């Protein structure tokens, strides 16, 4: 007798039930309420992007210790930011209510626009560097520096949805 394999639909339902249970636990969790006030969430967003600036300075300046410490601090503040907004930007649509869907829709749209601005700025730096370095105005940016700049841009875009949600939303 062979045991029948669960279908993809059954697996999806089971996964959604687990995510719903996790979301209910997070929404009921009061351990991090001290972090969820609007001024503290905004301060956390500022600290998150400040550590990102320090990471960029460390990478471009060749300061390995500053780079490592700021990267660890960035990841820690990103984790705290996720806790502060109760992972609301990470939950699937089936789990959240209509109001949160609307707020997240606006947040995602603005995060997308912000990411496009970051990518456009990166492209402008790349093109401007190529044109101005060819004219001898300044030394060209190396491929390693462009790679490092891409990481800074990626980290900024990674935190953007949670940062926008934490900055704007009155009650989390």
What is the topology?
Blueprint: H1 8-28, H2 38-61, H3 64-84, H4 98-134, H5 143-168
Helix pairs in contact: 2-3, 2-5, 3-5, 4-5
How would you describe this structure to a colleague?
The longest helix has 37 residues, at 98-134. Helix 2 (38-61) packs antiparallel against helix 5. It contains five helices and no strands. The mean pLDDT is 88. It has helices at residues 8-28, 38-61, 64-84, 98-134, 143-168. The protein is mainly alpha-helical and 172 residues long.
Structural class given helices, strands, pairing? Answer: mainly alpha
Question: How helix-rich are the residues, as a percent range?
Answer: over 70%
Order of helices and strands: HHHHH
DSSP helix count?
5
Detail the poorly predicted runs. Answer: none
**Terminus-to-terminus distance:** 51 Å
- Compute the number of strand runs: 0
Main sheet specs: none
General shape: globular
Radius of gyration computed on alpha carbons: 21 Å
Put the structure in a nutshell.
By secondary structure, the protein is mainly alpha-helical. It has five helices and no strands.
Keywords summarizing the entry:
5 helices, 172 residues, globular, mainly alpha
């Amino acid at each position: 007798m062979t045991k029948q394999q669960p279908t993809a639909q059954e697996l999806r339902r089971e996964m959604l039930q687990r995510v719903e249970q996790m979301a209910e636990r997070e929404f009921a969790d009061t351990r991090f309420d001290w972090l969820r006030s609007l001024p503290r969430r905004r301060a956390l967003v500022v600290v998150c992007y400040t550590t990102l600036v320090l990471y960029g300075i460390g990478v471009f300046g060749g300061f390995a210790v500053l780079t490592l410490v700021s990267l660890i601090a960035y990841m820690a503040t990103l984790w705290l930011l996720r806790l502060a907004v109760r992972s609301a930007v990470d939950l699937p649509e089936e789990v959240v209510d209509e109001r949160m869907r609307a707020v997240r829709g606006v947040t995602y749209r603005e995060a997308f626009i912000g990411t496009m601005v970051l990518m456009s700025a990166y492209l402008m730096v790349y093109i401007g560097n190529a044109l101005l370095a060819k004219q001898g105005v300044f030394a060209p940016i190396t491929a390693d520096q462009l790679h490092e700049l891409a990481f800074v841009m990626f980290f900024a875009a990674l935190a953007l949805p949670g940062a926008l949600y934490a900055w704007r939303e009155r009650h989390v």
